[in-house]
Design brief:
Layout lengths: L13 E12 L2 E12 L3 E5 L6 H9 L6 E6 L2 E2 L4 H6 L1 E4 L11 H12 L4 H12 L14 H13 L5 E5 L7 H14 L4 E5 L3 H7 L2 E6 L2 E6 L1 H6 L7 E5 L4 H9 L3 E7 L3 E6 L6 H7 L5 E6 L4 H9 L5
Parallel strand pairs: 3-8, 3-9, 6-7, 7-8
Antiparallel strand pairs: 1-2, 1-4, 4-5, 9-10, 11-13, 11-14, 12-13
Helix pairs in contact: 3-4, 4-5
């Protein structure tokens, strides 16, 4: 299958470069000095509270809006000076993906393929229909489709020209759990050969399929990290929840004396939370110190990305 695509980049090169991006609406700084770069194989979770500037930033990166300052390069093509080449490498699913309601799904996707300059439209259509599970509604007018199928048509049009850069704004919005799982698996499967920017409010989705996270609020970049590193900072991460047959003040004293222990919090019914000072997993140390004590239950808490998100954006959210 031969298709018109943008220039090919090596795995080590940045496919997306964003430098000092700014967008103002009067006195409001919707995007305020945002910079980052992405390489092939990276799936970036682009997060922020409502009104944080996520959608504006996505529109700037795709070229739908012009920045007041800064620049965006896609595969080495500057959006300001070589927009057609940059956009040829990009697939974009907006938050509310527009489509011609009276067209069938097949007709709309063929139209997009023509606009994108795809050489073998039939093969490209077959590929994206299989990927997005649109076969059963291919000949229906888009206006008759459910929200979930409309969303999948929008995803298919973003993929029709097999772009190297995918920018997806709430790609699983309106999908049922089975459809969400299908799209998440699709994104994960595409990630090895592309770089993907994923804006979503579903933080479990970010943990599942993203290998990098950016959090912005009030237009400013607060965090550029990985889901694993952020989860490790979450309140409750590696806290050991301990249940004993009877209260044991001596054990509590031994635990609190350990250099890695921040404190021990007692709860009713002989339950205790052992908080590590270093954030590490000290289950083995706790079991050693509890030798001879009748332990009824023990488990290690895991951090949650949404807890970190709330903590980092509290008081800063727009």
């Amino acid at each position: 299958m031969t298709e018109t695509k943008g220039a090919t980049s090596d795995a080590g090169e940045a496919l997306v470069m964003v430098e000092g991006l700014e967008k103002h609406y009067g006195p409001i700084r919707a995007v305020d000095g945002v910079s980052f770069s992405l390489r092939r194989g990276e799936v970036l979770g682009f997060l922020g509270p409502n009104g944080a500037g996520k959608t504006t930033a996505m529109r700037l990166v795709t070229g739908f809006l012009e920045p007041d300052a800064g620049r965006v390069c896609i595969g080495g093509h500057d959006l300001a000076t070589d927009a057609l080449a940059a956009r040829a490498m990009t697939g974009y699913l907006p938050e509310n993906a527009p489509a011609y309601a009276e067209m069938t799904a097949e007709g709309f996707l063929d139209f997009i393929a023509r606009a994108r300059g795809v050489a073998d439209r039939a093969s490209a259509l077959a590929r994206v229909v299989e990927m997005t599970g649109l076969g059963q509604v291919l000949h229906q007018p888009i206006e008759t489709l459910s929200k979930g199928f409309k969303r999948r048509v929008g995803l298919a049009q973003a993929l029709i020209h097999d772009p190297e850069v995918l920018i997806l704004d709430e790609p699983t919005d309106g999908l049922d759990p089975n459809q969400k799982a299908l799209v998440q698996e699709l994104i994960a499967g595409l990630s090895a050969k592309k770089c993907i920017i994923l804006s979503t409010h579903i933080l479990d989705e970010v943990e599942r399929i993203c290998n990098r996270v950016i959090i912005i609020s009030q237009g400013r970049l607060l965090v550029d990290s990985t889901p694993h590193e952020l989860v490790a900072q979450a309140p409750g991460h590696n806290v050991v929840h301990l249940s004993l047959a009877a209260a044991d003040a001596a054990l509590c004293a031994r635990l609190e004396a350990a250099p890695w222990c921040a404190r021990v919090v007692a709860h009713p019914s002989n339950a205790y939370d052992v908080l590590p000072a270093d954030g590490a997993n000290h289950l083995a140390d706790i079991l050693e110190l509890a030798h001879g004590t009748q332990v009824v239950g023990i488990r290690v808490g895991e951090g949650r990305l949404d807890d970190v998100f709330r903590e980092m954006t509290e008081g800063v959210a727009a």
